[in-house]
Structure formats: C-alpha cells, structure tokens
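User: I'll paste a sequence; please echo it back and then give the predicted structure.

Assistant: Echoing your sequence first, then the prediction.
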Amino acid sequence: MFSTPGVFEPGLGFPAITIAPGQFLLKDIGLLAASIFVAGHSLVELESRSN
C-alpha cells in the first residue's frame, strides 16, 4: 500500500488520503476486514450448531 504512488499525502496529515488510488485501497482493506470478520463468525456459528 505504501509503495503505490499517491496513496499517502504527507502534507494533508495522517488520516487524509489522496483521491485517486488512496481511497480505493483504503475502502478495499476495510471491506476485506469486514468480510473476514463476518466469515469467521459464521464459521464459529456453524461449528457450534453441528455439536
């Protein structure tokens, strides 16, 4: 993520990201984390129901 040009704009402060590739990558990381979280909880629920 940090190797892609334009992902982080130091002049705007830490939480600010550039419009072009930065928001896309940040959004995808958030969606990936959410999907892994939901999948993990679903697997735990499936295992508890099978026992």
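The mean pLDDT is 74. The helical segments are 21-50.
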